[in-house]
Amino acid sequence: MKMKKTMALFAAALMTVSALSIPASAAEPANKPYTTNATLSGIGSVSKTYAAVAVMQLYDQGKLDIDAPVTDYLPDFRMADPRYKSITPRMLMNHTSGLMGTTMGDFMLFDDRDTRPHDTLLQELSTQRLKADPGAFGAYCNDGFTLLELLVEEVSGESFTDYLENHICKPLGLEQTGSVWNAFRTPEQVATYQGGSIRYAPDYCMNIGSGGILSTAAEVCTFGSAFFTGDNRLLSEKAKQEMEKTSVTDAYQDGFGLGFDAVSQDDYAAAGVKVISKGGDLLEQHGGLVIAPDEQISVAVLSSGGSSMYNELMAQALMDIALGEKGITVEHPTAVQKETLDTVPEQYLDMAGLYLSAEGLCQLSFPDGKYMEITTMTHFRPKTERFLYTTEDSFVLVEGNIAEGKAVQAKAQRVLHFTRRSGIDYITEDSYNEIGSEGRFTTHSYTMQRLDANPVSEAAQAAWDARSCKKYYVYDLRYSNVSYLEMPSYTLETFPEAPSYVSGMKIIDETHAQAALTMPGGRDLRDITIRQENGTEFLDVTNLAMSFIAEEAIPALPSDLTEVALHSKQAAWYSIGEAENQTLTLDIPAHAAVYVYDSYDRMTYSSYMTGYGNRVPLPNGGKIVFLGEDGEVIHIEQ
């Protein structure tokens, strides 16, 4: 598997009779190499498995019924949707609660810590709706595991960090595992990078149960060994069996267990091996854990750079080696060319229309009845893909000119099927991908939902049309929030072909739009509200706990500006204008930050970039934002 030279890997495999650790080369020149025992890394959503273990320990002790309402244990948990009363701990653990997804706010920070995402979650959820009936389908959900964090604290009487230390770390002898509040006991932490070579401050997740645990590859591997059959250091066999169950019978839904992404994989099952796994991603720290409980093999891969997908592929490669030593051979699937036809059957032609995917609004058509065409609608970068009908009653992605007979099936194979579920038409997808010569992965998922008409008033349509292609810039987050790097702006789009929808949301009225996706796997959905404050327009993403200020309200950067007084959670944005050869020298206090962007909102400078000093060149047509706490001042020399 090829990886960028700036991606540092830390891997460990643990078996009952031997241990194998594979250190990777450092991501930067250093006198001592990274090692699996000393390098601390954020493990992202692998943390969810630890949170599920905590819940199941309380289940083992008879203190908690995982099928009782969450409100039995968290009486302050309320939502603006009466269906919340049916949510159970099991639903939180297997992502079927119906919660919208992730109340982001300040849950991801650079080199900083803050209790507010934990402390305010119940308040934030109290104003939110559910996207589906509890138990209806699975859709990955971070908020569910932050709720579990609160539940563990309420039932146990301990903070989640203390619970993790006392009931998971100590029984397993884990000395370099903890939360962002207590894990910094190692002299060496993974270096993180952006853009391949720019070193950044590390990124931390404030919601411990959903993504905030730090550890080493070796200790994650040891944690995985607690799931070996017959190992009861953390859980009873009954509790582990519950965690390894899935409620999914639909092959195109994610087969979530309790705290696991997958509790069965076809290729391993064909070899007679049960494998359970979990992946996790922060901004630049990633993890993968793959366990074969009956064979007593645990493999963990952590990395700086890359993604959890790469980590899990490497973990599977190590798993295959370990299984091979036991005489077990696993065959992984490869893409098989489909036999295609030049005509689409009549019954599918009526399926043309407007669809919604995770990428946005899509127009689906069947040109001349010969193939299927799907265009993802955007004013900035529209994408059109074409699919030929196959003898297997499916549609396969092709590249090249169909009319000239020069179309070939895409190497990264995608096969689509039409299906109907709960009265809604969907498209499901089989994807086959290869990473290098060895890494292969397949996915089976719901990928698109057909949209119904959504009649709205002319005034409502006109209001959103007037906002189409306008930009809004993130405004009300902590100075250390990673969103200023990841998603500084938000753009709304309407299209004549998709009346009554805006950027994948249903228009409700002149100032409200609501997520339209109700699809298995549809995660992190957004409802938005437009509000006016002292003549300035703001866009509130209500279920993300984020607000954005309209670009038109951002002033030009004064040529004589010498200081910026800062206010907590009030970003001071400026448009740069013509700035050829202009450089600022900044004096930035400890609790403050500065970002600079070019005219395409690509970040060109951040005060979280390591070793870049305080002299900042300004790009033409870009923007600069000053962030900090009340009372702080950033001094400027132009």
Describe this structure in words.
By secondary structure, this protein is of the alpha+beta class. The chain has four domains: 318 residues, Beta-lactamase (3-Layer(aba) Sandwich); 105 residues, Beta Barrel (Lipocalin), CATH 2.40.128; 95 residues; 84 residues, Jelly Rolls. The protein has 14 helices and 38 strands. The strands form eight sheets. It has an eight-stranded antiparallel β-barrel. The two termini are 47 Å apart.
Key attributes of the depicted protein:
about 650 residues; alpha+beta; Beta-lactamase; Lipocalin; about 20% helix; about 30% strand; globular; disordered N terminus
The third-level CATH topology of the largest domain is: Beta-lactamase
CATH superfamily of the largest domain: DD-peptidase/beta-lactamase superfamily
Helix coverage percent: 10-25%
Contiguous low-pLDDT stretches (5 residues minimum) are 1-6, 16-34
Count of distinct strands = 38
Counting H and I runs of at least 4 residues, what is the number of helices? 14
What's the shape? globular
- C-alpha Rg (nearest Å): 25 Å
Cα distance, first to last residue? 47 Å
Please state roughly what percent of the residues sit in beta strands, choosing from under 5%, 5-15%, 15-25%, 25-35%, 35-45% or over 45%. Answer: 25-35%
Strand order of the largest sheet: 14-15-16-17-18-20-21-22
